[in-house]
Amino acid sequence: MVDAGLPTYDQTDYGIKLIEEERRRIARELHDGPAQALTNLSMRLDIIKRLLETDSDMAVKEIIRANSRIVTAVNDIRRLIYDLRPIAIDEVGLICAVQELCGKYERDWHIPVRVVTADNVSSDFSPAKQVALYRLVQELLNNIKKHADAREVTVSFVREGHNIHMTVEDDGKGFDPEVIPDGHFGIVGVKERIAYLNGSLDIQSQIGAGSRFAIVVPVYKDGSDGL
Ligand SMILES: Nc1ncnc2c1ncn2[C@@H]1O[C@H](COP(=O)(O)OP(=O)(O)OP(=O)(O)O)[C@@H](O)[C@H]1O
Ligand SMILES: [Mg+2]
Fold first, then answer.
1. Ligand 1 contacts CB of residue 189 (under 6 A)
2. What is the mean pLDDT of residues 190-219?
3. Structural domain tally of the chain?
């Protein structure tokens, strides 16, 4: 049979599933974050209106509080927009893109987010796989931001033959990877994506002792060590 370069149904189904999952995640983040904040704000404005007639000092305090909530909501929306923007992976390559992402998170979170890259790691493999790895780092870093309360984060890359080893590590509060509550899909999605890339994932985490996600994916055509 002639390969027309068309995706198989399996690939198409998988692609559609990923898009739907992403839409669900964005919808939930908008609902839980900015939408709830703005609903709350609307109620606060009613209270402020009444306070203006009875207790203007309190009204001023409430306005200051309301303003800081608006700033938080705007920051949440900006973060979502940043996460959603397509990345020009062909131009910059995975490593530079991750360095840029970590630089941004370092500035936003005010903690060190280091990228350690072994000399033999290069970004000369399929752009689609580079984007997939980039999105994995993004989800794991967002989890660190949301859950870990970390003081330091390290993302590292090492090459071994055909494989790229990518590790995302934090020194935060840790969790039990065997117990993921219902309704949380980030790590499930990470596992699925890695399986689709024929890779493997090892999660080491303990309550109070940080978390370490070690991902190995075959990406290099040349099986030498790259040096
Ligand atoms: N780096 C981390 N440090 C501490 N806890 C974590 C970390 N990563 C994940 N967790 C825990 O694992 C749970 C599952 O993570 P997962 O990404 O699947 O869901 P979520 O982030 O809660 O929601 P979402 O579906 O938006 O990703 C989190 O709720 C959190 O309790
Ligand atoms: Mg998550």
1. no
2. 95
3. 2
